[in-house]
Design brief:
single chain; mainly alpha
Length: 78
């Protein structure tokens, strides 16, 4: 089991993110959300705002999760 991402000294369990729920909640396609979280696509600021707001985190925190996933250390669940 991988460790959660540390954001401002708090553990954020990115593995608990359900991409389908994020897609529905942000009115985005599942493939777009998945590409953002995997790091295959850099989100536009408007997209980052929508996703971060849905998750209740800051854009900076979202970008930390994306960078963590890009590093190969973790992958969000699809």
């Amino acid at each position: 089991m991988s460790s959660p991402v540390m954001i401002d000294n708090k553990a954020f369990d990115y593995k608990s993110i359900n991409m389908s729920d994020v897609a529905r909640g942000t009115k985005m396609s599942l493939s777009a959300v998945s590409r953002v979280f995997s790091g295959d696509r850099n989100p536009r600021i408007s997209t980052a705002i929508r996703i971060a707001a849905y998750l209740g985190i800051t854009i900076d925190e979202l970008l930390q999760i994306i960078e963590y996933n890009k590093s190969g250390a973790g992958r969000a669940n699809v």
